């Protein structure tokens, strides 16, 4: 059993790189913030003029805002998986990427949840969710589930960081008094006592167990906001698990993508190597075919009912208006990434990152294909000519802002908090005694890869 | 539209009671259909019988010629934007290639799917079975539009047409003027019914194809004649659109040209 071992100074130095980064960091922040500012302006325009500035209509009353809601909350699932499930299985290789994964979860969830407000015609009345809730409405379930998940995600970002915060406060001693006070406060009296370690471990295990049903609930109720309606394409019993699988698939891909960017930008190559990419890649590779299977199951039933609505929907998806997007997702978004990771020649950091980028983009398109084509099927005059929905610059601007807000917020987040989990990496790189049974779990070769990981991989 | 009279149940009760009396008379006479004069009816009104009565509509598709008068009257009187047809006349094609017109109002479902999914209880069913939207409460999430199998709901995307100062304030029963950013739909002109008047669409239909009625009192009128509702529905093999969905729609259709409404 061999882990790359680092001294505490090395780890702390790397973890605090975004905090100390200079001009290049701010240039990146500025570049990423521009589309966000533009999108904020577009939202202001929408609030002042009303939803008439969108491409929505009485037929296409939902569009890319709902797509964003589902897609971005889906991206946050990678964090839950890496921090919760992989924690419970004792996968030690995840130590260098847990903070990135948890930060990604937090930020994508915030951005996704914002669309619950953005899509409203009367956002200023949202307080009625508290004062006049209708418990039979899937949107109330969404509201409760997303808020719970948000709290859990914040806790999950915070708890494992407590020892790091204490270390950061020590490191800052006297140099940045305000930041030091903040860290000291958040570290909640952490001194590294063994009793504190025991308590934190128990809390983390408890949270890890708790966050799994919470996460499953969130995407299930999001799915049910569609499947409870009597509409072809939505009224499907598979929608809950289908959405959860889609969220995991896209979420892990998102963690890979963000990890690749952070590794490059902050030179974390010594800590994050092929082993992390490959193990996460295996998850993507496993979930891709699963998601394809769910898609197939969903559409097969639809295709045998032979009512006019189903027939029109399937024709829209598979042979007419939406066919390029649909087959694009199947081949470029699911099959190609799966193959890229499966084939040893492309199972490199670069190959896995490209595969993940394809998945992240395609899964947004897939959600669009779940939300929109169903609405193209008329309910009363079933033979009416098909109309299509085209989003306006307002919707595109706000969506683009959301996409850019994720890396922008992550940069700011890691300006404030260490990008690596110092305590966990330390624990994993402690020489001699294996701290916990190394559950390479996903792939037995992970061990040797960890050893070769540092310099051995090609990029 | 002139200014609205003081809100009171009186008018409605009188209409109901009179409708009931005439309906009963018609039944006793075994006539089924009798001529009916609205003003005389309201004048004859008796004391309210008490109890609540679900309103229904009957649309005789044999008579509808698709002239869109109902839609125009509704739009004008409710100050709707041109793209909102609370009563919409669909031009449909039947299985044999024949064409027919299908006026679609809100179906005033007994179990309204829109009500179940509204997160803030802005959509509700009143004690007379009328499904209403409180536009003061509606947050504009549009999930009710997803739930409605009849495409009966409309979102106010744009600023609404100007209304005279004498109209308002808007209520769920009389949502004029509507609120931008919220959902609106047909209200069966409950604001008319309460004052002993028939809905605008019924009133404006030159073919007298639309009836407003009361299930408990068992009468319906198209403004020209009053019928005993149960007999009228039975005799004409009336059906309810998409009844198989279980929403319990309260609009009946009389077919007659081979339409396949319940495909």
In quaternary terms, these chains amount to heterodimer
Strand order of the main beta sheet of chain B, please?
A: 1-11-10-9-2-13-12
Q: Can you tell me the residue ranges of chain A where pLDDT is under 50 for at least 5 consecutive residues? A: 432-459
How many beta-strand runs of chain B? 13
Name the overall outline of chain B: globular
Q: Show unreliable segments of chain B.
A: 1-9, 22-51
Overall pLDDT score of chain B: 84
Order of helices and strands of chain A: HHHHHHHHHHHHHHHHHHH
Strand content range of chain B:
15-25%
Structural class, from secondary structure content of chain B?
A: alpha+beta
Q: What profile does the largest beta sheet of chain A have?
A: none
Percent of residues in β-strands of chain A: under 5%
What pair of chains forms the biggest interface?
A: A-B, 42 and 43 residues
How many helices of chain B in DSSP terms?
8
Give a verbal description of the structure.
- The complex is a heterodimer of chains A (459) and B (263).
- With 459 residues, chain A is mostly helical.
- In chain A, helix 4 packs antiparallel against helix 16, helix 6 runs antiparallel to helix 17 and helix 13 packs antiparallel against helix 15.
- The radius of gyration of chain A is 23 Å and the shape is globular.
- The relative contact order of chain A is 0.18.
- Chain B is built from 8 helices and 13 strands.
- The chains are: A mainly alpha (459), B alpha+beta (263).
- Chains A and B meet through helix 8 of A and strand 3, helix 4, helix 5 and strand 7 of B.
């Amino acid at each position: 059993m061999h882990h790359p071992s680092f001294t505490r100074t090395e780890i702390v130095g790397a973890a605090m790189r975004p905090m100390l980064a200079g001009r290049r960091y701010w240039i990146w922040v500025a570049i990423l913030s521009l589309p966000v500012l533009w999108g904020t302006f577009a939202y202001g325009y929408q609030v002042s003029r009303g939803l008439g500035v969108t491409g929505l209509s009485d037929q296409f009353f939902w569009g890319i805002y709902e797509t964003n809601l589902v897609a971005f909350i889906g991206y946050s699932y990678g964090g839950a998986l890496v921090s919760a499930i992989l924690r419970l299985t004792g996968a030690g290789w995840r130590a260098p990427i847990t903070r990135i994964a948890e930060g990604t979860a937090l930020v994508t969830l915030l951005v996704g949840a914002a669309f619950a407000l953005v899509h409203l015609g009367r956002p200023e009345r949202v307080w009625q969710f508290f004062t006049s809730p209708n418990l039979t409405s899937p949107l109330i379930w969404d509201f409760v589930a997303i808020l719970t998940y948000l709290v859990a995600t914040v806790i999950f970002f915070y708890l494992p960081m407590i020892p790091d915060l204490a270390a950061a406060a020590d490191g800052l001693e006297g140099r940045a008094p305000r930041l030091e006070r903040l860290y000291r406060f958040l570290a909640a009296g952490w001194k590294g006592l063994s009793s504190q370690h025991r308590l934190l471990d128990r809390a983390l295990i408890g949270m890890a167990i708790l966050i799994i049903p919470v996460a499953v609930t969130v995407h299930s109720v999001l799915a049910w906001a569609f499947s409870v309606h009597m509409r072809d394409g939505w009224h499907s019993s598979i929608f809950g698990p289908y959405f959860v699988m889609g969220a995991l698939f896209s979420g892990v891909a998102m963690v890979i993508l963000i990890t690749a960017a952070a590794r490059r930008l902050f030179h974390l190559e010594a800590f994050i190597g092929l082993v992390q990419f490959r193990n996460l890649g295996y998850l993507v590779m496993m979930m891709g075919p699963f998601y394809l299977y769910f898609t197939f199951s969903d559409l097969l039933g639809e295709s045998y009912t032979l009512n006019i609505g189903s027939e029109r929907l399937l024709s829209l998806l598979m042979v007419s208006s939406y066919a390029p997007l649909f087959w694009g997702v199947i081949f470029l978004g699911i099959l190609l990434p799966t193959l890229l990771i499966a084939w040893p020649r492309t199972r490199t950091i670069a190959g896995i990152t490209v595969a993940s980028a394809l998945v992240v983009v395609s899964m947004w398109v897939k959600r669009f294909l779940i939300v929109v084509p169903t609405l193209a099927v008329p309910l009363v005059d079933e033979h009416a000519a098909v109309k299509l929905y085209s989003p306006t610059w307002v919707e595109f601007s706000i969506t683009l802002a959301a996409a850019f807000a994720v890396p922008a917020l992550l940069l700011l987040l890691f300006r404030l908090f260490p990008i690596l989990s110092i305590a966990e990496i330390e624990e994993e790189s402690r020489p001699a005694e294996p701290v916990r049974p190394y559950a390479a779990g996903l792939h037995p070769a992970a061990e040797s890869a960890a050893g070769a990981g540092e310099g051995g991989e090609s990029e | 539209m002139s200014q609205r009279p003081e809100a009171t149940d009186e008018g409605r009760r009188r209409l109901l009671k009179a409708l009931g009396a005439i309906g009963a008379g018609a039944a006793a006479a075994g006539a089924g259909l009798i001529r009916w004069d609205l003003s005389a009816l309201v004048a004859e009104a008796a004391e309210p019988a008490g109890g609540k009565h679900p309103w229904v509509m009957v649309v005789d598709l044999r008579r509808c010629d698709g002239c869109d008068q109902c839609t125009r009257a509704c739009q004008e009187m409710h100050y709707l934007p041109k793209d909102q047809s609370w009563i919409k006349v669909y031009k449909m094609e039947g299985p044999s290639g024949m064409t027919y017109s299908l006026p679609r109002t809100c179906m005033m479902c007994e179990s309204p799917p829109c009500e179940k999914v509204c997160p803030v209880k802005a959509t509700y069913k009143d004690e007379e079975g009328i499904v209403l939207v409180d536009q003061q409460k509606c947050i504009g999430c549009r999930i009710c539009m997803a739930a409605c199998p009849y495409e009966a709901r409309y979102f106010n995307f744009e600023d609404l047409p100007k209304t005279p100062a004498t109209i308002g304030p808007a209520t769920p029963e009389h949502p004029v003027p509507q609120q931008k950013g919220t959902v609106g739909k047909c209200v069966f002109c409950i604001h008319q019914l309460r004052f002993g008047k028939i809905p605008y669409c019924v009133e404006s239909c030159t073919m007298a194809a639309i009836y407003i009625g009361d299930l408990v009192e068992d009468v319906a009128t198209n403004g020209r004649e009053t019928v005993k509702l149960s007999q009228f529905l039975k005799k004409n093999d009336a059906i309810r659109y998409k009844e198989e969905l279980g929403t319990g729609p309260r609009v009946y259709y009389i077919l007659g040209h081979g339409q396949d409404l319940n495909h």
